[in-house]
Amino acid sequence: MSYSISQVKWQQAAPLLKNIREKVFVCERRIPKKIEFDKGDRTAYHMLVCDDTNQEPIATGRISPQGEISRIAVVMGHRSNKVDKFIMQGLFSIAHELSLKEVFITSPLEKVDYFTQFDFRTVGSVYMIAGMPKQRMVCNITDAIASAETAKFYLNH
């Protein structure tokens, strides 16, 4: 499979980004729309991944100007293709362009091991958000960029 990965603005790509996040977060994970879509969407930098075969949007993620990575979503049927790694690499590139030293993520407790493969490390203790255990994790951008350089992907701006 081949994919196109683009950095997009919320104002232009909101319908595509919302479609992906509604499928993953609202329908699958039962997160209320009013929680899923917030003010952060307007100021964040967004990645959009489309399947080249049918031009269908299949994945997204965002990073705030302060370095918070969030809303990483890959539609069912494409999760085994490691599309999430392309999103993370794109978000790390944006962080590098913003001259951020590190980025952070609020990880569901069951995904902590998953994020360690991207050089994230845990910080602080586990806490609860909306009844779900979370863990703050941080990643040094220099380390993330170095490990991402081994992957091959095409990034549009």
UniProtKB/TrEMBL annotation:
<feature type="domain" description="N-acetyltransferase">
    <location>
        <begin position="43"/>
        <end position="139"/>
    </location>
</feature>
<dbReference type="InterPro" id="IPR000182">
    <property type="entry name" value="GNAT_dom"/>
</dbReference>
<protein>
    <submittedName>
        <fullName>GNAT family N-acetyltransferase</fullName>
    </submittedName>
</protein>
<dbReference type="Pfam" id="PF13673">
    <property type="entry name" value="Acetyltransf_10"/>
</dbReference>
<dbReference type="InterPro" id="IPR016181">
    <property type="entry name" value="Acyl_CoA_acyltransferase"/>
</dbReference>
